[in-house]
């Protein structure tokens, strides 16, 4: 308890130093916006620091409270950063659609020269985000999704075989781990043209390195104080993770050029949009549109990192929960199996993305 109090006091002090204009925890009172009491906020911070409650569950509680009290929006503190939380559907639509041009910034730490992994679309701001995001659009066309789907089907066979092995030997398995191996094999193959063999070997360098860092003290620190990382030119992740993605882009570019290889994947698309120009931190802050400027090496590294990290855990979590629910609901599982059988019978034993679209309705 003593440690909690000391840590919370230190965090509050640092926050006041780092964010003087927004004087932590009184910002929303100043603005006259409904918020939560500073006392609950200290408890909330302690819970997050000591991993008693996930950050987004706390945000969900806040949203539900505001909605229940009939408020159209509320003032929340994302860790210590004042954050506006709309609850009214029309207001949300305005922010996401009609007024979107005013809301292009993300809050993460950015360093164009020293921290390539920070340069991903989850952190970028303004015109720089728009320019890079518009280049990525071509990686998510329906033709590209179809190729990704076929890759998912291919590794689905390995997934199936592994599950069968567990069933036959009556062994229990940690489904999240196996799902992560499956999504890693799929994303790394489709995105970068690399066979990671995570399912077959039960491991992967990508999973090993990322699982070490995803919930580390360092990543917590960067969420609390992105400004400190920018100020001291610190990297979001350790050199081993950063170098893995730098080597991935540099190595692939060199290998494909030397061997004249064209493979229509995510990294190929980035390489096609690349430029020899290295972006500096001051250029990054320029307001002018970056739509016509090619991607720097560091920007490509940032997008590859985001592509993998955005895809592997999210999809693995969705697969794990689906499988657990199906295991617990035999009737629904039987119904789904019958539906799949009918689709396979009608389409020569193959699944296509078009069937999936019909399925979701
Ligand atoms: C069930 C699985 C998934 C969920 C729930 C999910 C969820 C999300 C959400 C909520 C965002 C928006 C984040 C933000 O703007 O702050 C996002 C963005 C993104 N996701 Fe996913 N995602 C999933 C699967 C994937 C996969 C498989 C990939 C790629 C292999 C992927 C790549 C991306 C990328 C690149 C972005 C950033 C796009 C941008 O900046 O506009 N995601 N995802």
Question: Secondary-structure map with pairings?
Answer:
Layout: H1 2-18, H2 27-31, H3 38-49, H4 55-68, E1 73-78, E2 81-86, H5 89-98, H6 126-136, H7 142-168, H8 175-192, H9 198-201, H10 205-213, H11 217-224, H12 226-231, H13 239-258, H14 266-272, H15 281-284, H16 297-328, H17 330-346, H18 353-359
Antiparallel strand pairs: 1-2
Bound molecules: protoporphyrin IX containing FE.
GO molecular function, one term: iron ion binding
Membrane topology: Peripheral membrane protein
Protein name: Cytochrome P450
Commentary on this structure:
With 361 residues, this protein is mainly α. It folds into 2 domains: 89 residues, no CATH class; 197 residues, Orthogonal Bundle (Cytochrome p450). The chain is built from 18 helices and 2 strands. Helix 8 packs antiparallel against helix 16 and helix 13 crosses helix 16. The longest helix has 32 residues. It is globular. The protein starts with a helix and ends with a helix. The structure holds protoporphyrin IX containing FE. Protoporphyrin IX containing FE binds next to helix 16. It is found in: Endoplasmic reticulum membrane; Microsome membrane.
